[in-house]
Amino acid sequence: xxxxxxxxxxxxxxxxxxxxxxxxxxxxxxxxxxxxxxxxxxxxxxxxxxxxxxxxxxxxxxxxxxxxxxxxxxxxxxxxxxxxxxxxxxxxxxxxxxxxxxxxxxxxxxxxxxxxxxxxxxxxxxxxxxxxxxxxxxxxxxxxxxxxxxxxxxxxxxxxxxxxxxxxxxxxxxxxxxxxxxxxxxxxxxxxxxxxxxxxxxxxxxxxxxxxxxxxxxxxxxxxxxxxxxxxxxxxxxxxxxxxxxxxxxxxxxxxxxxxxxxxxxxxxxxxxxxxxxxxxx
Length: 282
Description:
The protein has 15 helices and no strands. The longest helix is centred in the N-terminal third of the chain and has 33 residues, at 3-35. The model has no long low-confidence stretch (mean pLDDT 84). By secondary structure, it is mainly α. Helices cover 70% and strands 0% of the residues.
């Protein structure tokens, strides 16, 4: 067996393994989406033993999707969450990039200590700081407002670390040339540095998006009013003390899945590029 033939076999084997792993990862998602097109009774009727109709509905129906918007007003938490991420992403990128620029470009007393604290901040479980954070938000009168959902999450240690690592790799000659030309530090950041780190900005945006889109505990504490409730909290409406409407849950979850997939697939290349170029290893 020659080397070329061996490489071909290994390549086929590689693609086969990737295909199997992809099917295993996507199967639960596909199963949930298909369950959203069947009634609650049919879900349990064909649950076991596993057969063709366990996966494929016998009677296809869009009533679940109609009901969650008509009877439960699902459009409101969906809109609230979209507005939340639309505001949080640009402000979070702005705040964390400016902070990272300070750590990467300047020397000041206590810099190493402060940077270490920021790095530790994203390692602390949110459960341990949720109550003190709630007391602060409540004192400010932000409970049941969008400010409570947006402001505490703007500073992100992991996002800032991504920017710090990238800024440190930028040749100092670029910054020095801009400064010699009379550019201020803010001009250097916004006109010279940030245009070079589009992959990092996209990576940071996706990280902030997923954090807010999937957040449950914090919105549960500070966004109890229907006017500011988010999509993850709204999913609990379909579970009562006496009954769980699984068909509604699957329909709402399928809708909640659309926007993350719509954003992630076209920006996946930039996301990977941003992680690798920043020097952060997973």
